[in-house]
Amino acid sequence: MKTLSRKSSLANLLALVLLPAGQAIAYNSGSTGADGAFNPVVDTEVVLPPDGIFNYTTVNVPAGVTVTFKKNQVNTPVTWLATGDVTIDGKVILSGTNSADVGAAGNGAIGDDGLPGLAGPGGFDGGVAGGSNSQLGSAGFGPGRGLPATGSGTYTSTTYGCGGAGAGYSTAGGNSGSHTSVSTNWCYVSKDGATGGGEYGNLDVLPLIGGSGGGGASGGFTTAGSGGGGGGGAILIASSTTGTVNGELKADGGNSGAVNSASGGGSGGGGAGGAIRIIATTVGGNGVISASAGQSGTVTIPGYTWPGFSKGGNGADGRIRLEAENFLRTTATTPSYSLASPGDLFVPGLPGVRITSVAAVAAPAIPSGNADIVLPITTANPVVVNIESNGVPVGNTVKITMIPATGNPVSVVSSALTGTAASATATANINLPEGPSVLQAEVSYSVIN
């Protein structure tokens, strides 16, 4: 049978208009205060509501306390709105996870070899690695997904896996397959390696979106490669008074696992860092604020000085945005922040795009990401994908990307959206392989104020 899961993402290019100096007004976070004060005293996993939004009065994460998050079904970013102060003296972590180490570098349990790193809330998972006997892996997920290795290399008549590419975000992700000569049997980017994911988003971090996942490596003769690292999550913190980070606020990309094996696989691509946006009347504190890139794992072949051609690409850094009337912070962030006066919390009338059916089988309104649509194996290709949008000008097209369980993604462009900007539809035709795959819908257009 053919199984499909569905994800959607939206990319907007926005022009930012700032008030001239002297016209600043007191900032209001918009919090209703309905969720009261958030004052954890022990390590806490916060379960996200369906929209990911909390309306607090105050937030105080004390030193010695770590806050993490359980993602909701639609994987929204985290939004903390507060009428009063937000103070982080402990740790708030939205980072993507590392993929499993493989072979002698691992824990001895081969069942997790090749599994990807998972994203933080609002981010995207890494790709699965190929298994032994030189199987291919899959691409990461998200608009800056790292591509998988597309082949294998040989050394001393033995087959080794090639690396997956790093995910992009604030910049492009790193390529894998560092050898540049096509006359060798090593992995090189134009043949067996993979191209890093592209840049997306903007300095305003509007709309708020997390980091993409790294690509999976290909397997070697005896062992799997390692999966791609998970993308960092995304968080918006808005306070009507003061936002202070003295501890740690992290949305880092996950690393790919290390590989240590004779005739082993390559290492996956690193996940991209996520997104952090803080808005307050006053922003202070000199703690750690990080949305850094995930790194690709090392590859070790016992008995050889391994030149690294089976190593994957590193991910890209994410994005950090700080907005305040009074800015007291004096320490750098990773990557460097962009700075502005307080702006809109959200994109007004945020557009949306979703897949409504595939081959006449309706998609769920809220996808689970796991076998949302099941098609008979006899379903003829190409299949028709029906799409609907809201808030997108008619005449634009939607890119539909099919991410298979192994190999490179395939993208097609839909027909032009017809209807009205408030509600429009389009169709696309795409071939589906046997087995599981993911369909992702993306629309991108410019908004000029």
List the helices and strands and how they pair.
Blueprint: E1 2-14, E2 44-47, E3 53-56, E4 59-61, E5 66-70, E6 78-82, E7 86-88, E8 91-93, E9 102-103, E10 152-155, E11 158-161, E12 234-245, E13 248-250, E14 259-260, E15 275-284, E16 288-290, E17 299-300, E18 319-327, E19 338-340, E20 352-358, E21 361-362, E22 373-375, E23 383-390, E24 399-404, E25 410-413, E26 418-419, E27 424-430, E28 435-447
Parallel strand pairs: 1-28, 2-5, 3-6, 4-7, 5-8, 6-12, 7-12, 8-13, 9-14, 12-15, 13-16, 14-17, 15-18, 18-19
Antiparallel strand pairs: 1-22, 10-11, 20-21, 20-23, 23-27, 24-25, 24-28, 26-27
What do these coordinates show?
About 4% of the residues have low confidence. With 449 residues, the chain is mainly β. The chain has two domains: 327 residues, no CATH class; 91 residues, no CATH class. The protein is built from no helices and 28 strands. A hairpin with a 5-residue loop joins strand 24 and strand 25. The strands form six sheets. Strands 3, 4, 6, 7, 12, 15, 18 and 19 form an eight-stranded parallel beta sheet that branches. A five-stranded mixed beta sheet has the order 22-1-28-24-25, with no helix packed on it. The chain has a five-stranded parallel beta sheet with strand order 2-5-8-13-16, with no helix packed on it. The termini are far apart.
